[in-house]
Structure formats: structure tokens, C-alpha cells
Design a protein that fits this description.
The complex is a heterodimer of chains A (88) and B (564).
Chain A (H helix, E strand, L loop, with lengths): L2 E7 L5 E4 L5 E2 L11 H16 L3 E12 L2 E4 L2 H7 L6
Antiparallel strand pairs in A: 1-2, 1-4, 2-3, 4-5
Chain B lengths: L5 H22 L5 H9 L3 E3 L4 E5 L5 E3 H14 L3 E4 L5 E6 L4 H10 L16 E2 L13 H12 L14 E4 L13 E7 L5 E7 L11 E8 L3 H15 L10 H8 L1 H14 L2 H4 L3 H10 L13 H9 L1 H10 E3 L5 E6 L10 E3 H14 L3 E4 L5 E7 L3 H11 L13 E2 L14 H10 L3 H7 L4 E4 L13 E8 L2 E8 L11 E2 L4 E2 L3 H15 L6 H8 L2 H8 L5 H10 L1
Helix pairs in contact in B: 1-2, 1-4, 3-4, 3-13, 5-10, 6-8, 7-8, 11-12, 13-14, 15-17, 17-18, 17-19
The chains are: A alpha+beta (88), B alpha+beta (564).
Protein name (chain B): Nitrite/sulfite reductase ferredoxin-like half domain:Nitrite and sulfite reductase iron-sulfur/siroheme-binding site:Nitrite
InterPro entries (chain B): NIR_SIR_4Fe-4S, NiRdtase/SiRdtase_haem-b_fer, Nit/Sulf_reduc_fer-like_dom_sf, NO2/SO3_Rdtase_4Fe4S_dom, NO2/SO3_Rdtase_4Fe4S_sf
Organism (chain B): Candidatus Filomicrobium marinum
Chain lengths: 88, 564
């Protein structure tokens, strides 16, 4: 199952997705996708450097599905989170 | 209203300065998130689904106009223009930014407010009757004791690391409007045999995963001994409360495990060892605090007003609002005005900065500068002269908070749910909004009458679903949001935990299910009988049958509902 990495920015709390070192994006579709375990562990290692530099907190990997090659959230929780605001 | 003394003010300022320094060190990378997390939580700053959330304490739900205006300023300048009033009578800002939080705490300190002890395993905000000091059925003003408890429990060195969070509620009235039996400690001011006032003390109530109604610990405690007795309860809990299992860590589990008699024995034994004199409040200190809550010098007036009566005849909305939201005040010619944050289509408990300012302005002009927050997520102007009622109403209409559905089915308690909360399993707000829409016709809602409908997005029960006459609990069922329905809960003197009716429903089937329940009530009710009374008389069966079909055919009917 494809995965991406998400977090919150330390300073603002904003929900962000990992798109490469020091590059966290608000739009989930722009996140870097790990297609397998090895790719994910590489991605996690790089993302961890941004934790150490105090850029992000609450980092975790999440399942996504690919629609036209772009990642989309699968769970209700992550759909609401990726919408960057409440559903109401 | 209570005003900070020099000690209070200096303490809050020093905590704010400390937190500013802690944030600076965190942003500079000098402390890790792991080290910082408990520090930010001690200052009410959580990380939620979309952002940080700052929970600000509103001690026993009492605000001045100036304080409410400051909350509006914070909402506008440092958040997204609104705040959310909670069932602990606090306010949450859902879009806080860590780097701005020290500034927010400074703004709070400017008006004698803070966010201390709104998180963590400590004694949280003590709640009380929203009509304290003005209710016609009151024995004594509970705010005095709520303030004494606030001072006693704030950074009490012994009780900052309890096994779990701890909630206290107090009422001074005949009718419990503070849900005291759903608290770790509930207190009721009562008259003793000689006419002296004291407390009936209840312990071990609570919602959450294992809901319990509190049991009576002591039928009468002389009021001057309150703090030493509370201290004894806290010590027994602090020592024996479970720290090994989060789900068994509340005092209610300890009380159940020991039994109320043994728990009482231990409390009495501990109490006998305590040096009462060093803990109980000296009379002059009680008098000093009580003076802040002296009754307002209101001039009694006529109990009817020609302007109000005229408007009631001409304006059905006003008439309905008066009928439902306006209650008698202990001083003739005055009323208590409930301001419901339950406008159709609006998130329960949310108020915009404009609305906060409008209510603050009305409080200043016509409400003796006082506002209350209720655990039902509404506001109250407790002191309005009847002659000003029309002006107050027009002000509320202009602010969009003039809906007249107090304690009707559309006066829904709802937690933020999965739209905001990290712990939630399902959304609460959309369900609440959809139900409110179904019953938006005021004449229908009024015909249904008093009915408490509460929604929680997870078993932690911040939306008080256990104590709703109709309770709705969001659950995650294989990745989809489902909702369990409970019936028969009550938060009041007849407190009871609701009973689960049957299998859960998918979100889209919930409004129909609620309509079916309400239709069943209307079909069975006797003249003047409220929902809860009908439910208690006829039991679960008719509701179950209406929802799930006759016994033995339940499965097929339920399937239809799920597929609906």
C-alpha cells in the first residue's frame, strides 16, 4: 500500500505533508509517495532530520490511494485533516 | 465578581513569562517536543487534528464584559475569528499558533484569565449553576465556594499529578443545573437540622468509558470544614487511584472497587488526621471572598412590562424566545436571559468574535456587566431588567444569537468530534446540525418539549451523551462513522446513565432514527409528559420496536436502516 508522511509545523501547528527535505507542503496531492516498505523507510529517515531541526512535530506515515498518480487520504480522519479544516 | 488580588495577578504574570521562555527555548531547539509537551499542556495548549488548540479557563463559567471582549479580540487576532464554548464552561481556540501563544496568555492575564489547569491530571475548572446568585430556588450562592475551591486547587502542590483529571461541580439551588452527580466530586448546598448551611457531598460520578452517577459520601458537612474534607477525599484518591491503567484511573473506579462505605471510612480516617485549622478557611477570608459576590443592588420592579407584552403579541419569534429562554430572577422586575449558541446551521457552542462583542456590549448596557457560560454550551445574561428585555432581544437578533430553543431538542450539546479532535472516532457536529435541521420548525420543537439531545464523537463523552435523554455516540465501524443511540439519560437530580438501544446506525440514518424515536414518544405521551417521563413509564421496548422492528425481526429492519 502506498504511504506518505504527514506532520504538523512546530511554529504554527499547520498540517503538512512531506515532499522532500525541508519541504513540507499543505496540499496532500503534492506529497512524496513511498510505494513500498523500503521507500517508506528512506522517506522516514529524511523526514526525521526535519524533526531534529525542530521544523515539524507529530510525524507519522499514513496510507494513501493514488488517483491519477497523486496521493489521496483513505480514512475519514485523514480526509478531514487533508481538507485543512472541519467538514462543516 | 471576583477580582484578582496582587498575589493572583503576579502569579499569572509569572506563569505567562515562564511559558514565553519555554516557547522560545522550544523554537530554538533547546528543548525537545517530548520535554516541551507537558509544559504546553500545563498551559492548556494541545495539538489537535488541524492545529494547536488553546483551552482557556473560565472559572465557574463567570465572565465580565471586558473578559468576553478580550476573548473576542484573541479570536480575531490570533485565531480564525471564533471560539468554542465547552461542556466544562471553558472556551477553546481551535487554530492557536505556538509562536503566538505567549502573546495570547498575556492578553488573558490583562483581564485576570489564564489557561492553567485546563489540561493534565489535576483539578480542572470547577463548574456551577449558571444561575448562581440569581436563581429563585437558591439556598446560598455557590460561586463563593467555587472561587474558594479555585484558589485552593490552583497549583495545589499535592494535587497537580493525580492519577487522572479531576472535576468538581457545586450547586446551591434546589434544582441541580450543574450536573453535579456526573462529577468526580459533586456538592450541593443544603440546610442542616438547625437551619445552618452545609454541603451534601457526592463522589465517583463521571461520563467517559465507564459512566457512573455519583454516590452520596456525606449527607451534611458543616461548610466551614469543606477544604479539609475535600483534601481528605483527594488524598485517598491520590494514594489509591490506579496509575497503572488509564481506563481505571478516575476516582469513580476507586469508589466502585472499594465500595462507598469503605471509601467513606478511609476518607473519614484521613480527615481525622488532617490539621483542619491549617487548611480550613478562616471566617474573615471567607467573608473577604464572599464580598465579591454580594447581591447586586437591584431595585424591584413590576413583574410585567407593557412593552414586552406588546411585542409578544406582535412578534411570534420574540414570544417563543421569551417563553423558552427567559427565566424568573430572584428580584422582581428582572429576568435571567439564556443566549443560545444553537442557531440552526451553526456549530453548537461556537461564537464568533462579533457575537462575543455583541453579547459583551449587551451585558455592559443591560446586564450589570456579567455573563455566564453554561455546560450546555450556551451563554446567560443573569441580570436583565424586564424593561430592557426587548432591547436585549433586538441586540441578540442583530448578532444572530436569538434562537429561542432553550432545553428543546435543538439545544444540542455536541463535542467538536472528528472535525477538530485527535481522539474522536466520528464527527459530532454534522450529526448535530442535521438533527437540528429536522426539528428547525420551532412549533414542532416546542410541541416535543423539554428534551436533551447530546452528541459525542468518542467514548470519552465530552458531548455528555450518557446524560442525554437521547444520547448519540460516534463509533468507528470498519473505517466508517457509525452512531450508537442511548435513551433515558438525565443529568439532573434524577441522574441516570442512558441505555444503548441497539446496533449502531450509519451517519445518514441517524436523523431518521431520531425522528422515529421522537414520533414514538409523541404517540405514547400523556398530557404534559416530557420525553424522559414517557420513556421511564413505557420503557425501551416501544422505541426499540419502532427503530429495529418487532423482536425477532430486528435484523432485517436494521439492515434496511443501514442501507437507507
Amino acid at each position: 500500500m502506498p504511504n506518505i508522511i504527514t506532520a504538523n509545523l512546530l511554529r504554527t501547528g499547520d498540517v503538512v505533508y512531506f515532499a522532500g527535505l525541508n519541504n513540507w507542503v499543505r496540499e496532500i496531492g503534492d506529497a512524496t509517495v513511498a510505494k513500498d516498505k523500503d521507500e517508506l523507510s528512506e522517506l522516514e529517515k529524511t523526514a526525521q532530520r526535519d524533526v531534529e531541526s525542530q521544523r515539524v512535530i507529530s510525524v507519522y506515515a499514513m496510507d494513501v490511494e493514488l488517483v491519477d498518480g497523486r496521493p489521496e487520504p483513505r480514512s475519514v480522519r485523514e480526509r478531514i485533516r487533508a481538507a485543512l479544516g472541519p467538514s462543516v | 465578581m471576583y477580582r484578582y488580588d496582587e498575589f493572583d495577578a503576579a502569579f499569572v504574570r509569572s506563569r505567562t513569562a515562564q511559558f514565553r521562555d519555554q516557547v522560545a527555548r522550544r523554537l530554538a531547539g533547546e528543548i525537545s517536543e517530548e520535554q516541551f509537551r507537558p509544559l504546553r499542556l500545563h498551559n492548556g495548549l494541545y495539538l489537535q487534528l488541524h492545529a494547536y488548540m488553546l483551552r482557556v479557563a473560565i472559572p465557574y463559567g463567570v465572565l465580565s464584559a471586558r473578559q468576553l471582549e478580550q476573548l473576542a479580540r484573541i479570536a480575531r487576532k490570533h485565531d480564525r475569528g471564533y471560539g468554542h464554548f465547552t461542556t466544562r464552561t471553558n472556551i477553546q481556540f481551535h487554530w492557536a499558533r505556538l509562536e503566538e501563544t505567549p502573546d495570547v496568555l498575556d492578553l488573558l492575564a490583562d483581564v485576570d484569565m489564564h489557561a492553567i489547569q485546563t489540561s493534565g491530571n489535576c483539578i480542572r475548572n470547577t463548574t456551577t449553576d449558571p444561575y448562581a446568585g440569581v436563581a429563585i430556588d437558591e439556598i446560598e450562592d455557590p460561586r463563593v465556594w467555587a472561587e474558594i475551591i479555585r484558589q485552593w486547587s490552583t497549583v495545589h502542590p499535592e494535587f497537580l499529578f493525580l492519577p487522572r483529571k479531576f472535576k468538581i461541580a457545586i450547586t446551591g439551588a434546589a434544582e441541580d443545573r450543574a450536573a453535579i452527580l456526573y462529577h468526580d466530586i459533586g456538592m450541593r448546598i443544603v440546610k442542616g437540622k438547625g437551619g445552618e448551611t452545609g454541603f451534601a457531598i457526592y463522589v465517583g460520578g463521571g461520563q467517559g468509558r465507564t459512566p457512573y452517577v455519583a454516590e452520596e459520601l456525606r449527607s451534611f458537612l458543616p461548610k466551614e470544614q469543606l477544604l479539609s474534607y475535600l483534601e481528605a477525599i483527594m488524598r485517598v484518591y491520590n494514594l489509591h487511584g490506579r496509575r497503572d491503567n488509564l481506563y481505571k484511573s478516575r476516582i469513580k473506579v476507586l469508589v466502585k472497587a472499594l465500595g462507598i462505605e469503605e471509601f467513606r471510612r478511609q476518607v473519614e480516617e484521613e480527615w481525622s488526621k488532617i490539621d483542619h485549622v491549617s487548611i480550613d478557611l478562616p471566617q474573615e477570608e471567607y467573608d473577604r471572598i464572599a464580598a465579591y459576590f454580594a447581591p447586586l443592588p437591584l431595585v424591584p420592579g413590576p413583574i410585567t412590562d407593557a412593552g414586552v407584552e406588546k411585542r409578544r403579541r406582535e412578534d411570534a419569534s420574540f414570544d417563543s424566545w421569551v417563553r423558552n429562554n427567559v427565566l424568573p430572577h430572584r428580584v422582581a422586575g428582572h429576568v435571567i436571559v439564556n443566549i443560545l449558541l444553537k442557531e440552526p446551521g451553526k456549530v453548537p457552542g461556537d461564537a464568533t468574535a462579533d457575537q462575543m462583542e455583541a453579547v459583551a456590549a449587551l451585558a455592559r448596557a443591560y446586564g450589570h456587566d456579567e455573563i455566564r457560560v453554561t455546560y450546555q454550551q450556551n451563554l446567560v445574561l443573569p441580570n436583565v431588567a424586564l424593561v430592557d428585555l426587548v432591547k436585549v432581544y433586538d441586540g441578540l437578533v442583530a448578532a444572530g444569537v436569538a434562537v429561542g430553543n432553550y432545553e428543546l431538542i435543538t439545544d444540542i450539546i455536541s463535542c467538536p468530534g472528528l472535525d477538530y479532535c485527535n481522539l474522536a472516532n466520528a464527527r459530532s457536529i454534522p450529526v448535530a446540525l442535521e438533527i437540528a435541521k429536522r426539528f428547525a420548525d420551532q412549533s414542532v420543537a416546542e410541541d416535543i418539549g423539554r428534551l436533551r439531545l447530546n452528541v459525542s464523537g468518542c467514548i470519552n463523552a465530552c458531548g455528555h451523551h450518557h446524560s442525554g435523554n437521547i444520547g448519540i455516540l460516534g463509533v468507528d465501524k470498519k473505517g466508517t462513522e457509525h452512531y450508537q443511540i442511548t435513551l433515558g439519560g438525565s443529568p439532573g437530580d434524577d441522574a441516570e446513565v442512558g441505555t444503548i438501544l441497539g446496533p449502531s446506525f450509519p451517519a445518514e440514518a441517524v436523523p431518521d432514527a431520531i425522528e422515529t424515536i421522537v414520533a414514538t414518544y409523541r404517540a405514547h405521551r400523556r398530557e404534559g409528559e416530557v420525553f424522559l417521563a414517557t420513556y421511564r413509564r413505557i420503557g425501551q421496548a416501544p422505541f426499540k420496536e419502532a427503530l429495529y422492528g418487532a423482536p425477532n425481526s430486528g435484523a432485517s429492519s436494521r439492515k434496511q436502516l443501514q442501507e437507507a
